[in-house]
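User: Assemble these into one structure.

Assistant: Restating your components, then the assembled model:
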Amino acid sequence: MAITEKTPLELGPGDTARYVERPLGVFTRPQGGRGWRDWLSTVDHKRIGILYGASAMFFFVVGGVEALLIRLQLAAPEGSVLSADVYNQVYTMHGVTMVFLFIMPLAAAFANYFIPLQIGARDVAFPRLNALSYWIWLSGAIFLNTSWIVGGGGADCGWFCYATNSGVAFSPSHGVDFYAIGLQILGIASLVSSINLIVTCLNMRAPGMTLMRMPVLTWMLLITQFLLLFALPVITVALFLLMFDRLFDAQFFNPDAGADPLLWQHLFWIFGHPEVYIIILPAFGVVSEIIPTFSRKPLFGYEFMVFSGIAIGFMGWGVWAHHMFVSGIGPISVAAFSLSTMFIAVPTGVKVLNWLATMWGGRLRFTVAMKFAVATVAMFTIGGLSGVTHSVAPADTQQTDTYYIVAHFHYVIFGGGVLGLFAGLYFWWPKVWGHFLNERLGNWNFWIMLVGFNLTFGPMHILGLQGMSRRIDTYARGYGFEFWNMAATVGSLLIAVSVVVFMWNVVKSKRDAPHLPPPGPDPWDARSLEWSIPSPVPEHNFDTVPQVHGRDDWWHNKYAENDEGTVVRVATVEEAAQTGEATGVHLPSPSFWPLAVAVGLPLIGYGLIFNLWLALIGALLTIASLYSWAMEPVDDPDATHDHHDDEATEGSSTEGDQP
Amino acid sequence: MRLPARPLGRVSGWLLSLLGAAVATGCASDAELDTFAPQGPIARELHSRGVLPVFWIAAVVLVGITVAMVWLIWRNRVKNYEGDDEWPAQTHGHVPLEVGWTVGFFVTMAAVAGIMLWSLPTVDATETNLMGVTVDDRSVEWEPTVVVVGNQWWWEFRYYFSDQVDLADLRAHGDAKTLPPADIVTSGQMVIPTGEEVELILTSRDVIHSFWIPALNGKRDAVPNRFSPWKIEASDPGFYFGQCTEFCGLSHSRMRMQVVALTPADFQSWVDDTTQDAVEPADPAALAGLEVFSGICTSCHVIEGVNDDVFESADQASGAAPNLTHLASRSTFAGGIFNLYNADGSLNRVQLEAWLRNPGDLKANYTVPGKQYRGMPDLDLSEQQIDDLVAYLAGLGNRPADWIIEATQVE
Amino acid sequence: MSDTATSEHPEPATGAAGEHSDADHDEGHAHPSDWAYAKIAIVLAVITALEVFTYFETVLDWGVALVPSLIFMMVVKFYLVATWFMHLRFDSKLFGRMFTAGLTLAVGVYLVTLTVFEFWV
Amino acid sequence: MSAEPLVADHGHAADEDGHDEHATTTGLSHTKLAMWVFLGSECLLFGGLISTYLLYKTRGNGRTLPTDVFDIPFTSVSSFVLLMSSLTMVLALSAVSRGEDEAGRTWLLATALLGGIFIGGQVYEFTTFVREGVAFTTNPASSAFFTLTGFHGVHVSLGIVMLMSLFVASVKGKLTQRNAETVEIVGLYWHFVDIVWIFIFTVIYLIPAD
Ligand code: HEA
Ligand code: HEA
Ligand code: CUA
Ligand SMILES: [Cu+2]
C-alpha cells in the first residue's frame, strides 16, 4: 500500500542510500533494456501509448471481422451464415469490442502519447499507474473475449444489454457474466487512467503553458478524461447490480418482485451518452491539430473551440434519456430530454464552422492526414444531422431501433471517430516511428475507406426509413431490403480492403524507411511542442523543459509576423528544435507489479463465474502485488544504466528553465 | 386487397444523392414497413409535422455545410505544395462571427424545438371516442382500447368490452402475468375498427419488446412491470405490418405482428365471432385432434370451451402461450411469421405441420427440458397426432376474408 | 490557478504542516488547532443528537418540517466535515472544484433520474 | 474494487528540473489532487447506489422491507462512532504533521478502532436483519439496501486497512512529519466515507419510508 511508501516524499539527492530493501516477491526489479521484457515492465508513457494503439488495432480487426460476419449474414434475405444465437453474440461483441476495445483504447493511445508531449512534460503524473491502466485494460479485453471459448459464447444481449433480457432466465450462457465483469475490469482501467491524465494536465504543464495555451488535442482529451471520470462509476453501479442479479440472485431487475427494468436503462445511458462524446472528442482534438497545420493558419477561434468542447462535455450529461424516447418514461420527460438533446447541435456546429473558417483563406495541403481530417468533418456532419433528426422525439418513434439509427451512429463513430483517429495516425506516425507512412498507399487507403464507408452506412439510412429493424439476424424477402443490404455488404468489404491497405502501408513504410530521408523533428511544419523534439521521441522527451510563451509556441519559434502581417521565418527547424541528446535525465524506473496486479483481476472474474476459490487466488495475487508495489521504491536504487538516479542529480543541474 | 405501399419519397432521394450512392433504382415496391408511407391520421400528422420538417432543416444545413466545404477546398487547395513556402494571412478568430453563427444555430434549433413541441401531441394526446359495440347481445359503449402484451416471441392482444380497463386500472393492478379476464384474447394479429383512435396499453410478461406498426404510428416499448400508453389509427380497411423492434432475445427477428383494420361493421362481426367459445368439432380426425390437444397442449395453450376453466399456467418464462380459440381466423401464426393460408386460400398445412413437428426448426427458441421454456418445445408428436391436430386447429374459427389472406402473402 | 512551477519549497511534501511560506498558491494556511477540530466535532455530535431526536416522534411532532429539517442538518454536517476535516476551507480551491464537480453532477443527474421515475409523486 | 489509487505513485519524471522536486504547475501535490479527483468520481458511484435504494425502498414483493426492521437507536450509535472517527482522524494528521509520532499513532489506532466498531455494528445489523427475514435476495428493497451499505462497509474496511498500514509504518519509524501528506490523503478518503454515511444515515434511515 502506497501509504507506507515514503519515497515520493523523501527521495532527494543523496537520499537513495537509505533504500536498501529489495522489493518483495520473486521478481528482481526490471532494469530496463531493449528486449520484449522491457515492454512488460515499461512505465514510459510513449511505450504505453504504443501498447494501447497496437492492441486497439488488433481489436479493430476482431471487431471488424465480427462486423463482416454481420454483413455477410445480412447480405441477402434468409441468410444462413450465422445461426440466430451466434448472430446475437456476434453483433453484441461487435459493439462492445469496437467501443471498449478499439476506439476508446485508440484514443487512450493518443492521450498517453501526446498529452505529456503537448504540455511539455517528461511523463504522466503517475507512470506506474499508467502501466497499471494499460495492463488492466488488456486483461479485461482478453477476459471479455475468452467468453467465446470458456463462457459458452459471447454476450448475446446487445451492447446496452437491457434488463430483463440480461437476466439468467433469458440469457443463460455465461456470456453476460463476462460482459458484466469484463466491462467492470475495463472500467477500472479507464478510471485510473482518467485520474492520472487529469492530474497530468493540471499539474505537469511546462512553465508558461497555461490552460488556455494548451493545444486543442490536449484540451479535448482532458475533457474526455473528465467525462470518463464521472461516467464510469455510473456504469460500475449498473454492472454491479447486473452481476449481483446474475451471480447472487439479487432482485434488482426482477419485475416479478416489483423491480423496474428501466433502472438499468437510465444507469446505462447516463454513462452511455457521455460515452459517445468520449468517443468523438479525441477525434475532434486530432482534427483541430491537423486542419490548422495543413491550412497553414492557426486554429480559428481557439477559445470558442475549447469552450464548445467543454459545453459538449457538460451538456452531454443532460440528454441520456433520448435513448429511451419510446420506453414509456412519460411525455414530460420525453419533451425535456428531446429539448436538451437538440441544443448540443449548437456547440458542435460552432466547432464545425471553426474548422471551416480555419480552412478559409488558408493554403490547404491535402496530405493523407488532411484528407482524413476533412473527411471527418464532412462525415461527422452527416451523422450529427441525422442525430438531430432523432432528437425530435416524436420523429424518433419511427426511427429508433431501426437501421436509421445504425446509420447515424456509424456516421458519427466511424465517420467522425475512426476517420479522425486515422487522420491522427497518418499525422503523428513520423513523430512516433521516425518515418512516414507511405502517402501513395495512404491515398488508396483513404479513398477506398471513404467510398466503402459511405457505401456501407449510407444505404442504412434508407433501410431504416424503409422499416428495417436493427439487431435482426435475418429478414424476409419482399420487404424491399434486399438491394441496399447487398450494397452495404459490398461496402463493408471495401472497408476491409482499406484496412488491409493500411496494414500493408505500415509494413511497407517500415521496410522502405532506411532508404528514405528521415522526417526530422517537424516534417509538417506544425505548431505544437511535440514537433520541437526529434522523431522518434527520445525516451526522456525533452532535453530541457520548454518555456512556453503563447499558443502554438513551437510555431512561433520558427516564424514571426512582420509589421505587414506577413509571416517570416526566424529560425529553421534544425535551429529551433531540441537535439534529444541530453543524458542523465532522471526517469521513473520500470516495474513488473502493474502487470502482476492486472493478472489478478481476470482471475477474480473467472472465479466469480466458475469457482470462488479461483477468485480468492486472484484477489490474493492482486493484493500481494499491490503491497509489493507499494514497498517498491519509485526509483530503483540499483539501477545503473543511463538516464537514472545518481547521474540524474548531476545531469539535472545542467538543466533549469532556459527561457 | 394489398395496399400499395408508397416507395420512399423525396427525402430518401436527397439522402441518396448526398451519400453519393447510386440512383434509387433498388428501392422496393413492396416496402410494407416503410416509415414514409403513413396510412392513418396519427402517422400522417407525425410524418408531416414531426419527421419531414426536421429532415428538411437537416437537409438545408447539410447542403450548406457541404457546399461551403467543397468551395473552400476548391478555392484554397494548393496543388503542388512541395517547396511551397508561402503563408496566408494568420487570422486567429473573429468574435462577431462566432457570436453570429452561435445565435444562428440557436435559432435553428429553436425552430426544431418548436417542431418537436408541435408534433409531440400527435403521438401522445388521446381523445375520448366511444364506439358502440355489441357483445353477447349487450351493447356497450367501448372506448377502443387493446391491451398489448409482449411475450418471447409473440404478441397477445386483449379486448375488454364488458369490464373495460384503462391505464390507471392496470397500473394499480400491476401484474402482466395475471391480467383480468378479457372478452377476446388473440395473438399475432390485432383487429381494429377503421376511423377510430385505438388506445393501446402495452406491457410484457418477460423481457422488453417494442410494438411498431410503421404505417399507423411510431413505436412504444412493452416493458415488464410497466403499463405504457400508445395509440394507432387506420383510415382505411387494410393489413398493416409490424415488427418487434426492441431486442428480445433469440428470435427477436421473428417476432412480428400485423394490424387488420376492418370497417366498424366488419369489426362488429369479428367481435361476434371471436367472443364465442370454440365449437366441438364433428369430423373424427378433428375430434382425435381435440383429444391430443387436451392431453398435451393444454399445459400451455388455452382454447376457450376446452380448457379455459382448468388452465393454470404455461411452462414458459412468460407463463403464457398463445390463445388458440380462434386460431383459424388469423392469417398468420407463430409470432406473425408464417402464413396460415396459402395464396389460393387453402390451409398452409406444410408449415403448420412442420411447426408441430418441431417448432424450434422453424423459429429459434430455447426449450431445454428442466429449464423454463422460451418458445414452444418439440413435443415428439407422431405424424398421426399431427394430422389430427391440424384437422382440429383448422376448424378453430372462421377463415379470414380473401383480401386479408392475399395481403398476408409477403413473398 | 497559478501557473508558475518554480515555487521553492525548502522542505518538500509538507502537505499538512503549517510551514508554507510562499503566497503564490493558496495551499497551506495554518491549520486549525486540535481544539478547533474538537469544537467542530461537538457541533457535529449535537446535530446528530438532534437528528436522532426527530426519530422519537412522541417527543415532538415535526410534521411537514421533518424532511426539510433533516436534510438541512445533513447538509450542515456534510459541509462541516468537508470544509474543516477535509480542509477544503484552507486548501486550494482546485480540490474543492474537483470534488464539487462530481458532487453536483451526481446530485443533479440522480435527482433528474428519480424525477423521471416519478419518485416524488 | 481496487480502483482506489492506493498507490501514491509520484511523477518524478516531471519534477526533474534539478532543484525542486515538487514544482508542479499548480503547486499542489499530485497525489492529493488525484485523491480529490477520485473522490469526485466516487460521488457518482454512491449517488447511483443511493438512488437505486431510494427507488426500490418500498418494493417489498410482499415480504419484509429493510425499513420495517431498522433499529434506529442502534444505527444512531454506530453512525455517531463513525462520525467521531473523523475527529480522531484529523487529530492523527495534526499530530503527525507536528511531528508527534506517538500521538499520531494513538489517533490512527483510535480511528481504525472506531471504524472497526462501525463495521462490527454493521455485521451485527446485517445478521439481525437476515434473522428477521430481510436477506440480500428477499426483494428489490433488500438487495438495494445491502448493496449500498455493503459498498460503504467495504470502503470503510479498506480505510481501516490503510490506517493500519500507516500505523505499522509509523511503528517502523517510516511515517514522519515529512510524509504527513500520506496521512492527509488517507484522511481525505476516510472523511469522504464518513460524509457518505452522513448522507446515508439521514436519507436512508431517518427520513421515513413514505
Ligand atoms: C461518436 C458518437 C456519437 C455522437 C457524437 C453522437 C451525436 C449525437 N447524437 Fe447520437 N448516438 C450514438 C453515437 C453518437 N451520437 C450512438 C452509438 C447511438 C446509438 C446507441 C445504440 O442505440 O446502440 C446514438 C443514438 C442517438 C439517439 C437515440 C436514437 C434512438 O435509439 O432512438 C439520439 C436521439 O436523440 C442521438 C442524437 C444525437 C445528437 C443530437 C448528437 C449531436 O451531438 C450531434 C451534433 C452535430 C451536428 C448537429 C452536426 C454538426 C453541426 C452543424 C453543422 C451545425 C448546424 C446544425 C444545425 C443547426 C441542426 N443519437
Ligand atoms: C467504434 C465503433 C464501431 C465501429 C468502428 C463499427 C464498424 C462497423 N460496423 Fe458497427 N456497431 C457498433 C460500433 C461500431 N461499428 C455498435 C456500438 C453497434 C451496436 C451493437 C448493438 O446493437 O448492440 C454496431 C452495430 C452494427 C450493425 C448492426 C447490427 C444489428 O443491429 O444487427 C452493423 C450492420 O451492418 C454494423 C456494421 C459495421 C461495419 C460493417 C463496420 C466496419 O466499419 C468495420 C470495418 C473493419 C473491418 C472490416 C476490419 C477489417 C480488417 C480485416 C478484415 C483485416 C483482415 C485481417 C488480416 C489481414 C490480418 N455494426
Ligand atoms: Cu420482441 Cu423483439
Ligand atoms: Cu446519446
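Residues 41-76 of chain B form the longest helix (36 residues).
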